[in-house]
């Protein structure tokens, strides 16, 4: 069996999660971890029993790797991905990066372009599409159960009290929702966005977007960093002339309502062998990247690719421009 030799860069909660998952993923071997924060690198190295590095340069020089997970963060959760991603791609490694691909469109374009030039696989942790419920709904779309698409409604919220930049919520949360919309309904070509601020907040912490897809279908997205966790946090609905589906809470339930037939189809996350919690979205996403690499997938075949991450960020940049100009913005 092929096996990917993996390094993880950025050892906050999310990078540590990646590292734990690689240790348990068939077809992957965690060989190195890296953080410029020495205490984080040392702690992860001791905990995971692999060499720890304080710079990507040193890690790439010393460890023989096939791929790197980039779980850095930075401004708007995205400014620090650029440097390690470019270094790893330059060194000829495949990269799985955290979302957002970047908080800066020009840098995202450079990363996608370098991956393309080097013929390396570049994926983004757009984990919400990597659930059995989402895969089943995608099959319904592909098999024609939805038919000609008419409208899509998506909502997602969590509590995140950080106040780092006015656009933090839009850039850092909505790569997930926009990716889910693109996954089922294709490219988005125009956006209109309104945003508001919860009591005491300085950033645009809640927003709603009207969207037009290249197919001609229309979409609506509502999201927030102001809603306490606990209750369901995501709902996805796509309707067409042949039927409509709803996915409740990422992986809990998917229901297909066929047009002209009162018998609906319901998939429920099973107690045995089902998704246990949100961490399983990471497990599925990282596992899928490893699986694709081991199977020799081409860069164009990567599920949840750098190009997908870039496309989502362009929609969000258009949404921000829409708020600033109070107008509809083409993507
Ligand atoms: N996919 C998801 O569902 C999901 C959920 C939460 C967070 N995230 C993403 O995960 C990322 C990380 O989040 P976090 O909370 O763990 O962040 P964090 O800030 O706690 O950790 C990032 C670490 O990266 C290190 N780092 C930055 N640049 C580096 C470099 N060039 N070389 C080595 N180390 C470097 C920092 O020192 C820091 O320790 C963010 O981009 C965030 O958006 C994704």
Description:
By secondary structure, the chain is an alpha/beta fold. The protein has helices at residues 13-24, 38-48, 56-62, 82-90, 105-118, 132-142, 168-185, 279-294, 306-325; strands spanning 4-9, 28-34, 52-53, 67-70, 94-97, 122-124, 149-157, 188-196, 206-213, 218-224, 234-240, 243-248, 253-258, 265-268, 329-330. Strands 14-13-12-11-7-10-9-8-15 form a nine-stranded mixed beta sheet. The longest helix has 20 residues, at 306-325. The N and C termini lie far apart (43 Å). The structure holds nicotinamide-adenine-dinucleotide. Residues 9-15, 34-37, 40, 56, 71-73, 77-78, 80, 83-84, 98-99, 125, 127, 172 line the site of nicotinamide-adenine-dinucleotide (NAD).
Low-confidence stretches: none
H/E topology pattern: EHEHEHEHEHEHEHEEEEEEEHHE
Number of helices: 9
Give the averaged pLDDT, no decimals: 97
* Ligands bound to this protein structure: nicotinamide-adenine-dinucleotide
Q: Gyration radius, to the nearest Å?
A: 20 Å
Which geometry do the CA atoms define? Answer: globular
Helix fraction?
25-40%
Number of E-state strands: 15
Distance between the termini: 43 Å
């Amino acid at each position: 069996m092929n096996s990917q030799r993996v390094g993880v860069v950025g050892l906050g909660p999310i990078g540590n999660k990646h590292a734990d998952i690689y240790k348990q993923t068939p077809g992957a071997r965690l060989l190195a971890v890296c953080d410029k924060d020495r205490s984080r690198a040392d702690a992860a190295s001791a905990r995971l029993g692999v060499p720890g590095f304080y710079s990507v340069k040193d890690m790439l020089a010393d460890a023989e790797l096939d791929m790197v997970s980039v779980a850095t963060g930075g401004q708007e959760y995205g400014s620090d991905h650029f440097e390690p991603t470019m270094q790893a791609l330059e060194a000829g490694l495949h990269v799985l990066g955290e979302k957002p691909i970047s908080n800066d469109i020009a840098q995202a374009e450079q990363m996608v372009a370098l991956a393309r030039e080097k013929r390396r696989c570049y994926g983004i942790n757009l984990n919400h599409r990597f659930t059995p419920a989402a895969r089943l709904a995608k099959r319904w779309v592909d098999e024609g159960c939805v038919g000609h698409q008419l409208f899509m409604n998506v909502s997602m919220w969590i509590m995140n009290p950080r106040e780092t930049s006015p656009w933090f919520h839009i850039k850092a949360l909505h790569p997930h929702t926009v990716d889910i919309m693109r996954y089922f309904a294709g490219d988005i070509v125009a956006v209109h966005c309104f945003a508001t601020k919860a009591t005491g907040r300085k950033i645009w912490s809640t927003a709603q977007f009207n969207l037009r897809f290249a197919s001609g279908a229309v979409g609506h997205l509502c999201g927030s960093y102001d809603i306490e966790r606990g209750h369901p946090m995501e709902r996805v609905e796509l309707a067409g002339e042949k039927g409509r589906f709803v996915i409740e809470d990422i992986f809990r339930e998917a229901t297909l309502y066929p047009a002209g037939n009162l018998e609906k189809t319901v998939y429920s996350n099973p107690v045995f062998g089902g998704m246990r919690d949100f961490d399983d979205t990471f497990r599925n996403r990282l596992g899928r990247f490893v699986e694709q690499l081991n199977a020799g997938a081409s860069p164009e075949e990567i599920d949840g690719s750098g190009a997908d991450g870039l496309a989502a960020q362009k929609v969000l940049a258009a949404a921000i421009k829409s708020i600033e100009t109070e107008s509809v913005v083409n993507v």
